[in-house]
Amino acid sequence: MAAFLYRMGRLAFRRRWTVALVWAAVLAAVGLAGMTAPEAEEEPFSMPGIESQEAFDLMEERFPGAAADGATARVVFVSPNGEKVTATENKKAVEAAIAELRDGTQVASTVDPYESGAVSEDGSTAYTTVTYKVDASGLTDASRSHLDESLEHARDSGLTVEAGGDAMEDTGGPSGTAEAIGIAVAAVVLLITFGSLAAAGLPLLTALIGVGISLFAITALAGPLGLTDTTSTLAIMLGLAVGIDYALFIVSRYREERAKGRAPQEAVALATGTAGSAVVFAGLTVVIALAGLSVVGIPMLTEMGLGAAGAVVVGVLIALTLVPALLGFWPNTVLTRKDRKARRAGGTPQETRKVNGGTRWASFVLRRPLPVLLAAVAGLGALALPMTDLQLGMPGDEAKSTETTQRRAYDALAEGFGPGFNGPLTVVVDAEDADDPKAAAETVSERIGGTEGVVSVSPAQFNESGDTAVFSVVPTTAPTDQETKDLVNTVRGDRPGIESEAGATFEVTGTTAMNIDISEKVQSALVPYLLVVVGLAVILLLVVFRSILVPLKAAAGFLLSVLASLGAVVVVFQQGHGADLLGVETTGPIMSLMPIFLVGIVFGLAMDYEVFLVSRMREAYVHGERPAQAVTSGFQHSARVVVAAALIMIAVFSGFIGESDAMIKMIGFGLASAVLLDAFVVRMAIVPAVLALLGERAWWLPKWLDRILPRVDVEGEALTRPTEPEAEPAEKDLARA
Asked: Which of 24, 60, 599, 659 is the most buried (most CB within 10 A)?
């Protein structure tokens, strides 16, 4: 591996114009394909293998056109000062508002609350549902403006008017603010780390090129493959983060080799052969973690994982080819100011084994490995404890800020009609084989209506064939309450008896049931996913480090950090401790996809740090250093790079904490805290402490296994490192650059 990458780096340096032009051509071609590709149709969210999805599919089959994905806005009217919405003046204002709403160019229908019975028992609240001819992404700016203006005109009458529904959601896509913050912070961190504008700018440039290629490729494939906006969002996030990290690692090793007096071409080749090997295997672990999301069985997660994995692959290829080529154009500008000054003076900088922050920290841990290990494990364990109280769900409008009209509409409906009104269950009765379909549907309706925890059941609506009925069930509790989940399980548990009595089958669906089913599916898939991803990564690290204990230690450390970060998410977003500091107004269940999403991304990034740090220790050990010396050497050369990479990751993810959406806040906080804990506690404290306690045993591998495992030579043993007697002719010209 090292020898192959050595030759690749040397070739990229010598053929730098060709490499640069090839990548420019790839960017142009993919960019043209992305810009000319037809806009992808919005694919409805689907979750194969759960009852609520099967019921929804049955509804689409038996009620053609009725389950169209037209956007909806539920407009809520609340009368002022104890008045009733049925009062003459208030009723006129509501009817005028509905008439104005109906005049929208994309409006398909509106419902009169006085005719449909959509008025609360105390008469204080009424609502109407506005249905559009297109889905939320197809609403024009004119339609959104018309909706907003209609609400404002209705408020002028003295009524409190709020609106929820997907027509109120902002579908404009990501603003790019978080990414901009991440790039700005990354630039500062890189400048401090390298002390050179060129060295700081090169990783940013190559990372942006990689992200551009990945984004255009996803855009071009969005139509044929049905990819969604979330696929490109995750690809941008991870492509930017790992792209900077991988280029940073190559450039850092190049500067180190130049400090030893090597010529630019040789330094590039050695950096690509050694640091490049670590980049390849770090990238493979990230790809395994992301591609492994496909085992969960959720199409959206599969798309996101494969799209982001593709972006990581592009980042690896750019680090191994374009970075060496660009170093060929500017071989001296990426060096430290001291080195550039020495070269201008005609001298050659001499390598010194200086004591830096990394060596000082490593020495501290090596002197006290057991106390450091116990303190780190105890701290992470304490943070992980709240994980035992984890409750999964899909937060809706109730999790939004009270400053939003969606949240105020949610609260008004809950107060006027009861908390369960915001999350009704939909029951689909398949009476195709029943002797009397109407009687069968009525039996199912009566039995479910008599279940404890049900407020009301709507009249059954039949399809044209008369063999399928649909009705709504309003629970007594809110959509995210545990009692609502218990009610769904009770209804489904009573199914055999109800179906036997009715002579027909039924299924429970609706947004609330869908969220419950998704949560249960994710929870059941989490352990298999961990086994697949961690198992494959352990095998990969076994090949890289040729050790039994180092990969197991890496996996155990990751589990500690991800459980601790999930515990932190529970503490803030579920239990509410410190929620005010992050602007979280309502706490509740953790987003269903959060654990598996966090595990997938953080595992890949954690293994990045593991490979970067420990591969340098392994290299020192293979080249004759004692275990303790090897740990110190690894920290001396890699700690600063790992810290810089982690700070960049934390900055990128923390940018999302400032968003108004509670789910975005949760994702940003979870990822930022996971990187913080993994990089600074696990990799910087637990890793050196464990290696110090193990000593020689850390690198033990049974002889029979040593013979079986392929040798990939990540440490660069096959590379010869002659001392350069003088600069190559090319360097003499390049030194003036």
From this structure: 599
DSSP 466: S
Rounded distance, CA 617 to CA 636, Å?
A: 10
438-495 pLDDT per residue, tens: 999 999 999 998 899 988 888 888 888 888 898 889 899 988 888 998 999 999 999 9
**Lowest-pLDDT range of 95-99, 104-108, 600-604:** 600-604
* 310 vs 134: which has the higher pLDDT: 310
- Please state, in angstroms and rounded to a whole number, the distance separating the CA atoms of residues 18 and 14: 9
Phi/psi at 455 (nearest 5 deg)?
Answer: -85, -50
CB atoms within 10 A of CB 32: 12
Sign of CA dihedral 660, 666, 667, 670: positive
Burial of 403 per CB tally in 10 Å (0-12, 13-18, 19+): exposed
Top-confidence range, 38-52, 169-183, 287-301, 618-632: 618-632
What is the bridge-based pairing of β-strands 454-457 and 392-393?
Answer: unpaired
Q: Which of 632, 394, 349 lies closest to 518 in space, CA to CA? A: 394
Please, which residues have CB within 8 angstroms of residue 414's CB and are 6 or more apart in sequence?
421, 422, 478
d(CA 356, CA 637): 9
pLDDT of 171 above 90: no
- CA separation for the pair 699, 351 (Å, rounded): 28
Contact 376, 385 (CB under 8 A): no
- Count of Cβ atoms closer than 10 Å to residue 442 Cβ: 17
- 303 pLDDT higher than 70: yes
What 484-491 contacts at long range (C-beta under 8 Å, 24+ apart), as own/partner pairs, is 484/420, 484/423, 484/453, 484/512, 484/516, 485/516, 486/453, 487/425, 487/451, 487/453, 487/454, 488/425, 488/512, 488/513, 488/516, 490/451, 490/452, 490/453, 491/425, 491/427, 491/448, 491/451
Neighbours of 580 (CB within 10 A): 10
**CA pair distance 474, 495, nearest whole angstrom:** 18
| Closest to 430 measured CA to CA, from 125, 58, 109 | 58
Cα→Cα distances 358→342, 350, 440, 686, Å: 25, 20, 74, 15
Q: How far is CA 290 from CA 231, 418, 467, in A?
A: 12, 42, 44
pLDDT level of residue 318 (50, 70, 90 thresholds): very high
CA–CA gap between residue 54 and residue 298 (Å, rounded): 14
Residue that has been written with the tokens 């490729």 in this structure = 217
d(CA 451, CA 494) in angstroms, rounded, equals: 10
Alpha-carbon gap, residue 330 to 251, rounded angstroms: 12
Banded model confidence at residue 321, pLDDT cuts 50, 70, 90 = very high
Rounded distance between C-alpha atoms, residue 29 and residue 282, angstroms:
28
Q: What is the DSSP string of 93-137?
A: HHHHHHHHHHT-TTEEEE--HHHHT-B-TTSSEEEEEEEESS-GG
3-state secondary structure of 61: helix
> How much is the pLDDT for 734?
40
Mean per-residue pLDDT for 251-266?
87
Which of 353, 318, 322, 335 is CA-nearest to residue 264? 335
Tally of CB atoms within 10 A around 423: 23
Q: How far apart are the first and last CA of the chain?
A: 32
What are 457's strand-pairing partners? Answer: 473
Rounded distance between C-alpha atoms, residue 442 and residue 33, angstroms: 56
